[in-house]
Write a structure and sequence with these properties.
The chain contains 12 helices and 13 strands. By secondary structure, it is an alpha/beta fold.
Amino acid sequence: MDNRENRILIGQIDYTNVWPIFHHFHPETLSRRVSMVTEVPAILNRRMLEGSLDLSPISSFAYGLGHEQFVLLPDLSVSARNAVNSILLFSREPLERVINGKIALTNTSATSINLLKIIVEKAYGGRPTYWNSEPELTSMMQESDAALLIGDHAIRASWEDHGYIVTDLGEVWKRWTGYGMTFAVWTVQRTFAEQNSELLSEIVDAFATSKQRSLSDLKPLINRSVEHIGGTSDYWRHYFSNLCYDFKDEQQAGLALYFKYAYEMGLLKTEVPLNIWSDNKLTRVKE
């Protein structure tokens, strides 16, 4: 990978659910020149896998695909202890009645797609037909029994009076496994981590500071969400309060189970260890 004239490229997911970690993150204060690349998860996933980004939050499943080239940043994730409110399946009938039907998948995130497949096929024993679609609920449901939306598309659709049953996949996962679900993780290219340990410490500290500041005062995030997405202050206060941005033992255990099931179903070709960059500049491998 070239050094892009010494520019460090950091990805940023274009969804409200990552705002707490980025809202007070100021790349201009870092000791090296950094450029931000804001995209939907699918594009950031691809760019990290191809090596054209140095560091980025990506879908948890994308980490599973590229774990040999990635290191996870400590204590950063987008997780849910129960319901997530933005990974939603819309259907005309309850989930157990559509598990053998036709399901439209959003084309924006691998983690949620594979979480749905694990739930439908492993937990419920279903064998549906899947097809990929742009994230627009009306067109998705024209020829489908159910449709998966994530992020801000799911949030907006959940406010509409469409009459569909709305199933929160985070809630289903929790009820089935007893664990919360981690949907996104912060990853860095292993080679970058090995060559830039001091800068990476700076970046990790800056993200941690942003997370702490955001969660100690949600009002700026709530106001920004109402302005840009819509909805009420009460909705967004509940939304942000319900998410978990840690990546501690509980989140790691839930993600390890997700990877185990994905491997057993053939969605991943290998088992996936959690390679976590630690404060003493060494990579800690969790089996």
